[in-house]
Write a structure and sequence with these properties.
single chain; alpha+beta; Aminopeptidase; Alpha-Beta Plaits; 2 domains; six-stranded mixed beta sheet; five-stranded antiparallel beta sheet; 10 helices; 22 strands; about 35% helix; elongated
Length: about 400
């Protein structure tokens, strides 16, 4: 149960979030109709900038990589709310029952590409900023609201830039990725690797004269399949995984034995697994296949942002978990109870988020709550419940109030 004053304040925040629900949904639809694939977010950044300025954020600016940073308050402590604002493409249009970039409200949901992953979180946190200002919920903090770029292509790159180049180092970041309105406190990490082997080409009419790289890589791929079964598990995050997602080869012609082949590996890392341990396991799998000289390479991401900036990073995205005893989790639970009148489910994401850089690389605590269910991320007919938008905004405002002792 909440105290009388807490109940009054919670009711006030919920009432205001409901009053703003239509505006929040309208803003989300503005975001959806402005296509913003990775490295192509320039136009949607301007939509967000206009909305933040209309609401009355204290400051709005765009960093060198192209992410937008809105500020509310100027207290001595810093916290941030984050939403990536790039989306994946629509995919096979025949699987959609409507144009994914012509959003609509129907059956109590906002429909369109990005409503769940994760422009809904962007809309909710911006209108939480409006509530925080209107209801005077903040005195202790400089609160940053970041709409970040390129996450779908390279999760965490945007926050590597914010932390290292913009020198933004909050004490806490609230990740607004979809959680189905539960509280999340971590997820597995991931990395991308190539396993490469060389062969010796010869004419296809006499393959015994050569050394076929495709046969080598096929045997290694079968060992990777076996490796997946024996990877370690964690009681909270679950099991690590590895799978082959692509294979390619070269040869002088289609009637010649292959002289080079590789497989691409998607590796998901549970608690306790590292880049070094994962690479070693793959090397051992190649040796089991009979090819200890196979090259195992952790890949690099070197694509240009829409600003033209190239900010290279290794494709290793560390695991992270917020401890159960964290005071931030305690405060989040209490804020949740005040808003929703029940205890939250505390869980984890299946996929990866910007937390890989914020918490995984830089040890800045993260906690998550976002509108929409992650099972609809990257799926056709993506839709986010309208009530999630106002509910998330109410929680964000309540969490800030709790951190401020209000």
């Amino acid at each position: 149960m909440c105290l009388e004053n807490d109940c009054f304040n919670a009711a006030r925040r919920q009432r205001r979030s409901k009053e703003l629900e239509g505006e929040t949904a309208r803003f989300l639809m503005d975001l959806v109709r402005t296509q913003s694939f990775s490295s192509k977010e320039k136009e949607v950044i301007q939509v967000i900038k206009k909305e933040m300025e209309k609401i009355g954020f204290d400051d709005v600016r765009i960093d060198g990589l192209g992410s937008i940073i809105g500020r509310v308050g100027s207290g001595p402590r810093v916290i941030a709310f984050d939403a990536h604002i790039d989306t994946v493409y629509a995919g096979d249009m025949s699987q959609w029952s409507f144009d994914p970039f012509t959003p609509k409200i129907e059956d109590g949901k906002v429909w369109g590409r990005g409503t769940v992953d994760q422009k809904g979180g962007m809309a909710s946190m911006v209108y939480a900023g409006k509530m925080i200002k209107e209801l005077d919920l903040n005195s202790e903090f400089t609160i940053l609201f970041t709409g970040t770029v390129m996450e779908e292509d390279c999760d965490g790159l945007c926050w590597q830039y914010l932390i290292r180049e913009e020198k933004i180092k909050p004490e806490l970041v609230v990740i607004t990725e979809p959680t189905n309105m539960n509280i999340y406190r971590g997820h597995r990490g991931r990395m991308e690797m190539h396993v490469e082997v060389k062969g010796v080409s010869c004419h296809g009419s006499a393959p015994e004269r050569g050394d076929n790289a495709i046969y080598k890589i096929a045997r290694i791929a079968l060992e990777i399949e076996k490796l997946n079964e024996r990877l370690r598990s964690d009681p909270f995050l679950g099991k690590g995984t590895v799978t082959v997602t692509e294979t390619k080869s070269t040869s002088p012609s289609l009637c010649a034995v292959s002289d080079f082949a590789y497989i691409h590996l998607d590796r998901r890392l549970t608690y306790g697994e590292t880049k070094e341990s994962a690479v070693l396991e793959v090397k051992e799998a190649a040796a089991r296949a009979g090819y200890p000289d196979a090259d195992v390479i952790v890949l690099m991401y070197e694509e240009a942002a829409y600003t033209g900036k190239v900010y290279p990073t290794e494709k290793y995205y560390p695991t992270w978990v917020l401890e159960e005893k964290s005071v931030y989790l305690k405060d989040a639970r209490e804020a949740y109870r005040n808003v929703f009148g029940k205890d939250p489910i505390v869980d984890k994401w299946t996929f990866s988020t910007n937390g890989v850089a914020i918490a995984g690389m830089h040890r800045i605590p993260c906690i998550g709550l976002g509108p929409g269910n992650e099972i609809y991320a990257h799926a056709p007919n993506e839709a986010c419940p309208v009530e999630h938008l106002s509910g998330a905004a109410a929680f964000y405002a309540a969490f800030v109030a709790k951190l401020n002792g209000k």
